[in-house]
Design a protein that fits this description.
single chain, 96 residues, mainly alpha, Butyryl-CoA Dehydrogenase, subunit A, domain 3, 3 helices, 88% helix, 0% strand
């Protein structure tokens, strides 16, 4: 198996997981009555939407044979997910 095939599979799996997570977060927004938490979920939705876009970019870089572009886009996606995590940690702290 070529490394580009493995990269495509990995990016597809990450995109699938990020999309599922985004759907879960989006489903929580209307169910949440706490304003701070609702804002946190909305911000996380934006981060996950950006992460999915970054993964799409990474897939394009795989297709064009640009490993540096793959690395940068995948890293950007991971940063977006990390930013969501930080946002939710801050929300939980404010609820205590």
């Amino acid at each position: 198996m070529r490394s580009s095939s493995l990269a495509k599979i990995t990016i597809d799996l990450a995109t699938s997981n990020a999309t599922e997570t985004l759907q879960i977060i989006q489903s929580l927004v209307p169910k949440t009555t706490n304003t701070k938490l609702k804002e946190g979920y909305a911000t996380c939705s934006e981060h996950y939407d950006n992460a999915i876009g970054d993964l799409g970019d990474a897939q394009q870089h795989v297709n064009t044979g640009d490993p540096m572009g793959v690395n940068l886009s995948a890293s950007s996606s991971m940063d977006e997910v990390g930013d969501c995590d930080d946002e939710l940690k801050e929300c939980r702290r404010s609820l205590i």
